[in-house]
Every structure is written in structure tokens, then in C-alpha cells.
Design a protein that fits this description.
With 161 residues, the chain is α/β, with parallel strands linked by helices. Helices cover 37% and strands 21% of the residues. It has one domain (10-156): Rossmann fold (3-Layer(aba) Sandwich), CATH 3.40.50.620. It has helices at residues 39-51, 70-89, 101-109, 123-135, 151-154, and strands at 11-13, 24-28, 54-61, 93-98, 112-118, 139-143.
Length: 161
């Protein structure tokens, strides 16, 4: 899969901030928990390269996700371990921190020039991204990585009639 050009329809600025003078680009991975076929990750890498910076991938692990149980967490943590290993083979560090996802992203985003996140469609996922976009001191960019055709292209959300 060639990710040299991420389709513009997948990319959405979530705030009006400019890139900050940070130490790295933060990819806040929450929904698209994978190192392969991940548009948000590839976009983050492209932007980090453009800025001449490294990339840090972060995941916020909350212990009270709605409807989740031990089996869900076990499966997710096994997958995140594989993702972390795959990223390490590409020279990318991934940190998994316990805490509310938006708070983890904001904490690690304090030293970031840009925060890139994947798109979530659930109400609480949208609220997390809104919180980060509002409170971050740098540009926050959301990239659709889980749909073949981005929702805003396939629905009236993007003005498609």
C-alpha cells in the first residue's frame, strides 16, 4: 500500500493552532491500534519528516472503558504489544500510559510540535478529540484510517449530496 499521498478527504484540522516549537510529533493512537495500513500513522510520519523531527506514538489506557471486561483488555494489550514491536522495528517509540486518553495525549503533547490522531466515531471518542483540540498548544490533525471511504465523503457530513 502506497501512503506517499494521504487523500485530503481523510485529513481534518481540529483546531486553528500552528505547529509549535516542539521536540517531536505526537501520534495519539487510540482507535486505529495497528502499525500497518494506518493512514494516521503514515501521515504523522510524513509530517514528522517534513518538520525534521522524530515521532512518538502514544496510547491512553483507561481502566473503565464502557462495556469492556478483562477479556477485552487482554486482547487489546496483546495487540498493542505487537503494535509496539512493529513500530520499534521502524525506529518509532510507542508509549502506553494509564489514564484518560485525552489527558494522556495532552500530557505528552506538551512537548510536541503537532498532534496527529486517528478518528473515532463514538460520542466519547469525539469528546476526547474535541478536548485535545481545544486544550493543546499546537496544531491537532485528525486522520481517518478505519474506513475505506471517509465518512465525510460518503455522507452529508462533508457536504456530499
Amino acid at each position: 500500500m502506497d501512503f506517499q499521498t494521504i487523500q485530503k478527504s481523510r485529513i481534518q484540522l481540529l483546531n486553528d493552532a500552528d505547529a509549535a516549537k516542539g521536540n517531536y510529533l505526537l501520534y495519539w493512537m487510540q482507535q486505529s491500534q495497528r502499525a500497518d495500513y494506518n493512514h494516521a500513522l503514515e501521515y504523522a510520519i510524513q509530517q514528522a519528516n517534513r518538520l525534521g523531527q522524530g515521532i512518538l506514538v502514544a496510547f491512553g489506557l483507561m481502566d473503565d472503558y464502557p462495556e469492556a471486561n478483562l477479556r477485552h483488555y487482554t486482547f487489546m494489550l496483546e495487540g498493542l504489544k505487537e503494535t509496539q514491536s512493529s513500530l520499534a522495528r521502524r525506529g518509532i517509540k510507542m508509549v502506553i500510559q494509564k489514564g484518560a486518553p485525552a489527558k494522556v495525549a495532552l500530557k505528552l503533547g506538551r512537548n510536541a510540535s503537532v498532534i496527529v490522531c486517528d478518528r473515532g466515531y463514538l460520542r466519547h471518542q469525539k469528546a476526547w478529540r474535541d478536548q485535545v483540540a481545544l486544550q493543546a498548544a499546537c496544531r491537532v490533525v485528525q486522520v481517518e484510517s478505519d474506513a475505506i471511504v471517509p465518512l465525510k465523503v460518503a455522507s452529508n457530513e462533508g457536504g456530499f449530496q
